[in-house]
Amino acid sequence: ELYIIITSDLGLCGSYNSNIINLARTRVKENDKLILIGNKGISQANKLIKNKENILKSFAEVGNKFSYELASLIAGESFDLYKQSIISKINIIYTKFVNNVVQEAEIKTLFPLEIKTDHKSVHTEIEFEPSAEEVLKNAIPLYLSSLIYA
C-alpha cells in the first residue's frame, strides 16, 4: 500500500501533527510505501518505517505553496505505481477540520474506488468517445489530483 501523509512544516499547532503520526503508526506496515508532505512528517518518518527506500518522495517547506501541479505530480507517480502492481492501494492520511479546536486525523482510500452496488439500478450501456479505457486512463489521474489537492 501507499500512504500519502500530510503534516505541517512547523510546530505549535496543537495535536495536528501528533494525531497524524499516531494514526500512521497504527496503520503503516513495514513494506508499505510513503510519500511525505511537510517537515514534521519527514522528521518522524523513522518512527513509521525502518526501510528508508520505502519513502518514495518527501516534500518539505511546501506550506502555503502547495499547488495543483504538485498534487498532480504526486497523483501521477502514485497511479503509475498502482498500474505497475508495486502497490495495491493509494491512501491519504490528513486532518479533517471539525472546529477551531478539534481536527481529527483521518485515512481515506483514494484508489481503488469502493463501488457500492445498488441491485435496483437499471443497467444501460454507455458509449464513450474515444473509448471507455481512454476516458478512464485520463480521468483517474485528474480524480486523484483533485482529492490530493483538496
TrEMBL record:
* Record's subcellular location: Membrane
Query: What is the superkingdom listed in this entry's lineage?
Result: Bacteria
Gene Ontology terms for molecular function: proton-transporting ATP synthase activity, rotational mechanism
Task: State what this protein does.
Answer: Produces ATP from ADP in the presence of a proton gradient across the membrane. The gamma chain is believed to be important in regulating ATPase activity and the flow of protons through the CF(0) complex.
**What is stated as this protein's family in its record?**
Belongs to the ATPase gamma chain family.
Key word NADP present: no
Q: Which InterPro entries match?
A: ATP_synth_F1_ATPase_gsu, ATP_synth_F1_gsu
Give the UniProt keywords, A-Z. Answer: ATP synthesis, CF(1), Hydrogen ion transport, Ion transport, Membrane, Transport
Q: Which Gene Ontology cellular component terms are annotated?
A: proton-transporting ATP synthase complex
Lipid bilayer topology: Peripheral membrane protein
User: What's this protein's name?
Assistant: F0F1 ATP synthase subunit gamma
